[in-house]
Amino acid sequence: MGSSTSTIIDDLMCLAPHTEIAHHIPGRVRIKVLPSGYEMALDMDTDELIRCIPGITRIKVNPASRSLVIEYDQERLPYELWEKLRYLKGKPELEMEIRSRLQNVCA
Questions:
Q1: Is the pLDDT of residue 102 over 90?
Q2: Under CATH, what is the fold of the domain 3-106?
Q3: What is the model's pTM?
């Protein structure tokens, strides 16, 4: 796993507590970015996110609604991993597990 991948995972982990999952079906998740994470989300390189995390196939960004739609391969990034991100804000102890699982996907 390269430093770029580590940076992307770090960015995701920092952004996650500032988001809410608005809608989720296996293979597609719509994430709302809270005002507290707006600047952070704008700074994220979505092309790099797709390149560094195998299984993310497409990201559509809607700055007006502060949302991202992420399409992903369920085999590489299971539904329940995204659901755990949903609870990261209230359960910061999940961070190490989520980070480790993302690193394994990227290895």
A1: yes
A2: Gyrase A; domain 2 (3.30.1360)
A3: 0.88
